[in-house]
Design a protein that fits this description.
The structure is a single chain. This protein has 280 residues and is α/β, with parallel strands linked by helices. The chain contains twelve helices and seven strands. It has helices at 11-24, 35-38, 54-66, 82-91, 109-118, 126-141, 151-154, 160-170, 174-187, 193-210, 214-228, 240-257, and strands spanning 3-7, 27-31, 70-74, 100-104, 122-125, 234-235, 238-239. A five-stranded parallel beta sheet has the order 2-1-3-4-5, sandwiched between helices. Helix 8 (160-170) packs parallel to helix 10. The longest helix is centred in the C-terminal third of the chain and has 18 residues, at 193-210. The relative contact order is 0.10.
Length: 280
């Protein structure tokens, strides 16, 4: 989805961002206050294995689900804990690839410095933001391009290492599957390598459940979505759409059980990878 998040409530800047984004083919979700993040239906990540709580947990969950291409922070906004939020986004493995553009008053040099130190990819003054927004956006958006799939490669059969890894995965030997899938990922130069990473990370989540590591499993379910959700529904004969459903079902059941009941997780939810021929 061509989606941007704007963290601010200034009418002039938000209007300019929305209009510029529209020209570039993007939609903007406005986040003017903490309530815009915390008053949502997103699951609270205090249970999800990340060292996050409250609004920062809600923020990560929101970004993982929405997968925006760019985040824009108004550092003039005192209604948002932007230092904490920028730091969390850039330190979390599930969200750190999302570029951040931040802007603030040139008079408040300490604020601009704080934005840089928090981890924003680009920090500019209000004037630069107003004058250079299209260029700034295009530059940062180019850092987070959608995966470009080579249809010929995606339609090929799985290489031997990936087949071996999936065979171990389907046998419930998730730790052993990791080695072959990682080797397949390293050996593959094209974007299809993300298929192997996604299967590998689902397998790690299942392995953590086998070990009784509730937090570790939930962290991996969260992390894998940035790869799994970007794959085509069928890739190298792997039924990715079904894998998404299977991983989501396992994650939901684990959340229902809670940390105290990981031992009774139904192993039938460790469903095997399905293979099928991609349609024309």
């Amino acid at each position: 989805m061509n989606l941007l998040f704007y963290f601010g409530n200034d009418f002039f800047f938000s209007t300019q961002l929305v209009e510029t984004a529209k020209v570039l083919g993007y939609q903007v979700r406005l986040v003017g206050s903490i309530a815009d993040i915390s008053n949502t239906s997103f699951v609270d990540l205090t249970q999800r294995g990340e060292a996050l709580h409250g609004q920062t947990a809600d923020l990560v969950r929101c970004l993982v689900d929405a997968q925006p291409r760019l985040l824009v922070f108004d550092l003039n906004n005192r209604d948002l804990p932007w230092i904490d939020w920028i730091s969390v986004v850039k330190s979390n493995a599930s969200t750190r690839r999302i570029p951040i553009l931040a802007f603030g008053s040139h008079i408040a040099a300490d604020v601009l410095t704080a934005g840089q130190q928090a981890g924003a990819d680009k920090v500019v003054s209000n004037g630069q933001f107003a004058k250079q927004l299209p260029v700034l956006m295009q530059s940062l958006l180019s850092q987070n391009e959608p995966i470009q799939w080579d249809a010929d490669i995606a339609s090929q059969v799985l290489p031997d290492l990936a087949q071996s890894g999936i065979a171990y995965f389907n046998a419930g030997a998730f730790y052993r599957a990791h080695d072959d899938l990682e080797a397949a990922w390293v050996a593959e130069p094209s974007a299809v390598r993300e298929l192997y990473r996604a299967i590998l990370q689902v397998g790690i989540a299942y392995y953590q459940i086998q070990r009784g590591n509730y937090n570790g499993a939930l962290k991996m379910f969260l992390r894998v979505k940035q790869w799994l959700n970007r794959l085509p529904d069928v890739c190298q004969t792997v039924d990715v759409a079904q894998l998404r459903l299977d991983a989501a079902a396992a994650e939901a059941r684990l959340l229902q059980l809670g940390a105290s009941q990981v031992a009774v997780f139904p192993v039938a939810l460790f469903r095997p990878i399905q293979l099928r021929v991609a349609s024309g």
